Amino acid sequence: MFRLLRVPTTDQILPLMHQVIDELIQTRNSILKGMTPETATFANTLLPLAQTENAVQGQLAMIDMLQYGAPLRETQDAVHSALSLYAEARASWIADAGYFRLLQAVRDNREDFETLDAESRHLLERHGALGAEEVEGFLQEGANIGQIERKFQENLSRENGGVWLTRDELEGIPASDLGKWMPNGANGGEQGGEKIFVPFANGGTLAILTYARRPETRKKMFLADNLKLKSNQPLFEEIIRRRAQRAHRLHHPTHAGYRLQQRMVKDPEWLGGFLNELKETLCARGKDEIAVLQQKRLKDLEDKHGMNGVGFPPWDKPYYMRLVEEEVAIDQLQLSEYYPLEKTAIGMLGIFASVLGLQFEPVAAEKESLWHESVRVFSVWESVPSKQFIGYLYFDLLWRENKYRGTQSVNLQCGYLRPDGSRQYPATILMCSFPTPTPTGCALLKHHQVVTLFHEMGHGIHDLLARTKYVRFHGYRLPPDFGEMPSMMLENWCWMKEVLQGLSCHYTTLEHNYLNEWRKQHPNSSDPPKKIPADLVERLIKHRYLNRGLYHLYQLSISIFDFQIHSLQKDAEIESLDLQKLWYDLREEIESMDFSECRDGYAFGTFSHLTAGYDVCYYAYL
Length: 622
What we know:
alpha+beta; Glutathione S-transferase Yfyf (Class Pi), Chain A, domain 2; 24 helices; five-stranded mixed sheet; Neurolysin, domain 3; globular; 9 strands; 4 domains; two-stranded antiparallel sheet
């Protein structure tokens, strides 16, 4: 085992980054002073730098993680300053022609090359193989792109908007959501009266769109949410422009062509054909599913509201998808009662333990090793035969202010082989933003959230079980379209009856207070069973593909948008790019919904993947 990493305080972040940079500079300078192209070998030129990169990676990863998980904005600001320093240092190293001449000499030494193991050969082939013009391309654009991407991500994590709604407008909203919003905004502020503030984040928008009975409430929430993060539009446009310029300097006609060299899919033409083929196949399915929703919607509008409906607006999709599910007796609220977040996550660890021969043990971590009080830590071991230590797994599962808004696995320490032959053990984080419960309630997962959690846990276990010599290749540090494959396949486990029943545990069995409150809400009902009834699971599995066409079409919309904005070749095309028009045109065409009332929105600036390493890669989710 190794000690848990210490989380640096805000005032320690910049000094720590300076220390990391200094160690790397010292190693590079030592190599440059002692070696010539005639004497350079892998062992004296690249290996010392790789070993220093190994040694400082955990400190870099800790700093990088805090931009997603640090509770305080001032900590995140310090991280952004530190990462800018590191980007500047990397730019100076890339510009250092002397070191690259040594590397080229090592690559040309075929006798030395033949003695290397496969991973070391790969390191040599991948490390610094840039020509002079390519170096200039990185220096001109690379660091600046990273800074703009970080600002984009910062805006996402700090977004705190929402809508004030009356109690009447909130008709149909589950008590679990109302109870969560009440302390934050009931009778509050200048709004006064009986209004409640519903945030866009922390599940607010989705709850309104899924459960609010009044169509005008759903529309109001959707349109307001659609207008958030206007500030990300110019940032995204600048990122797209700079990416294209960098690609041109690196002799690629488009950013897509450049980026796909780092993916499993190499050919832009093939990828474009793949996406178009999917569109032709899936759009027909989507139109059929929208027709079913529209039939239910029109009847509902006429019977309950005395209204007519033309077209199918996007704010009505979650609501009528839920009603279609309930027609076949699938109630996501009822299902969620059997999947309390923490208990379900522990149950998932049990699945990985039994399948992979692992053992997870809770760790009583000191405060200095946690960035938030809600974080939990587990040590991970081989269960048989020798119970070897594997690494540490962290849970950071609930939404909070200033935190990354999506779900992801974040590496905190890569594994690698030390010079003395011992191994540095890895550490990884499941960092999610599942909605928080009421102050006295229990965080519950709907089925799609169970799938999401298992998906991310797959990434985390992949990261922990990796065995590499160098941090550069550890875990999911590989083409992301390949890296998504294990977790995408693991999602199928969450559609198996025995798995869903095994994971289930009604939340009222966890604390007596939960049971008492449940009894108040269900005065004439028997206490719920501890395990989910078999018929609920069977109905869920039977209707697995209900509305799935629309789900995949939304993923396809993002994928095609991603591909098209990064496939523009001419400067004039890039300068005239209208992100709003392209985004809403694609969504109308692909998803068969009417976006005519919301084309002034900025929804394309609300998902993080395209500025977090998944540009020209969103297709991996298809």
